[in-house]
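__Protein archive entry__

___
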Amino acid sequence: MATQAFVDSVIKEIVQPGVDQLMALPYFTELRAGKLSTRRLQGWALQHYLHNHALLKGFALCMVKNGHEPELFKYFLYQLNEEQYHPDLAKKFGLAIGLEEEDFAKATPIFECLAHTSKTIHGMLLGAASENRASALVNETMVCRYSEEHIDALRKHYGLNDKAIQFFIVHAVADQEHTQMAADVIAKHANTERQQELVREAAQNMVRFKIAKFEGIYNSYA
């Protein structure tokens, strides 16, 4: 079993610096200043709506993959139940800022978001439990942080109420728990030196994919 010190080192050396890099992107510096265009916010809503649908299918497949391990099966069942309404919350935000239902029906993933989602599903299907949840550790930590950024900016600069930004309100709280759950799985299952190497590699890759995702949204929805 990995020690908590190992998980803490991954957070300190990889995850937190990645969060800092993400927050320094133009998407977030402009969001905080109230200068991020509505079109770029709409781009986030469309792309995350698609990503959330893919996550639901990934969690369902993880349940099948881990059907012989009751603890992991229950973990992924819990995650599926937690995420089942999140595509609707992303859509609710998008509709509140001017998108139409048809926009979501016609949406396709841009290259960087497709890469990010593909890496996420790759870890779910082909990675060991600890490698899989290393990606989640990065994603959940980043979503928690950027949800806080969106809540503050969308209330202050864009005049949106809590109903419109429910996605971010939910994730600012729930992903704190999800982050800890991912850390617990890593601590329990990264029990060899090789698995710990894969955890670090998965976390490093996910940081890059996540940053590229927001750069892609910013550039594609200019």
About this structure: The chain has ten helices and no strands. The mean pLDDT is 93. Residues 38 and 184 are 38 Å apart (CA to CA). The longest helix spans residues 38-65.
